[in-house]
From TrEMBL:
One of its GO terms (biological process) is regulation of DNA-templated transcription. The keyword Transcription applies. It comes from Cohaesibacter gelatinilyticus. Signal peptide: none annotated. This is Regulatory protein, luxR family. SUPFAM superfamilies: C-terminal effector domain of the bipartite response regulators. The keyword Phosphoprotein does not apply. Keywords: DNA-binding, Transcription, Transcription regulation. It holds the Pfam family GerE. One of its GO terms (molecular function) is DNA binding. Residues 177-242 form the HTH luxR-type domain.
Length: 247
């Protein structure tokens, strides 16, 4: 049974550990309640799509913006959005001050949606990004914005760790499902993983018992799926979006 959480409840950042949500809905309820208590005015929790793919089918909680048109705009946002890309590469959670990060934040469509509404502009003062990732299973972005949004660095890190642990437990119990379009094939992943180890096309062809032409075809396909301009960027994007792990 899902645990119902009153969004007005004043929950500490330890709530996820203290209450142990039993399903994804309970997890989302607690995360939203904690962030609201800390001053979040806008919250978006979504799976991270690959570049060129929209987030629409991956959204878990959309409390970003005020109008129905905002919701439609958000569903059409691509994985190449600068804020989503930034979060996909985070090893630790971040709190950005808009005035300090405006140069790159202002080109994010997510940020534009709030900036276009005068009533929401002050909520851009503080923006939190949390990257939740379990390799080859689930990759999630938790984004919050608020004029008075405040989490100390230890609290933000602790909340992020709780999210990671809780999602690991829910996924292990098969209570989370995430299917992304545009994922690399197993062979494309294998070729990229070997490329990341510094192996040449000739070495990869010999190891996989395929032709060098096939190796290059797999690299080209992976590059197109990840919208990368060269082999190095293809490897970097594959790591960013959880397509390969570095051994």
């Amino acid at each position: 049974m899902s645990q119902q959480v009153d969004i007005k409840d004043e929950l500490p950042v330890t709530a996820l550990i203290e209450h142990k949500p039993e399903d994804l809905t309970g997890f989302l309820d607690y995360v939203c309640a904690i962030l609201r208590h800390k001053g979040a005015q806008h919250i978006l929790i979504t799976g991270l799509p690959l570049p060129g793919k929209a987030i629409g089918e991956l959204i878990y909680r959309n409390q970003w913006g005020r109008s129905e048109s905002d919701n439609c705009d958000i569903c059409d946002i691509l994985g190449s959005d600068i804020l989503l890309r930034k979060i996909a590469g985070l090893a630790t959670p971040q709190l950005w001050r808009y005035e300090e990060a405006q140069s790159w934040l202002e080109v994010s469509r997510l940020i534009e949606i709030l900036a276009e509404n005068p009533a929401d502009q002050k909520s851009l003062n503080n923006i939190i990004g949390i990257h939740v990732h379990r390799f080859n299973r689930v990759q999630m972005a938790i984004i919050a914005a608020g004029e008075t949004l405040r989490l100390s660095e230890p609290d933000l890190y602790f909340l992020s760790c709780q999210c990671q642990v809780t999602m690991f437990e829910l996924d292990s119990a098969r209570r989370v499902e995430q299917t992304r379009s545009g994922e690399l094939s197993n062979r494309e992943r294998h070729v990229l993983a070997l490329t990341a180890q510094g192996k040449t096309a000739n070495h990869i062809a010999e190891e996989l018992r395929i032709s060098q032409r096939t190796v290059h075809a797999h690299l080209q396909n992976a590059s197109e799926k990840l919208q990368a301009s060269n082999k190095t960027q293809t490897v970097i994007e594959a790591v960013r979006y959880g397509q390969i792990e570095l051994s």
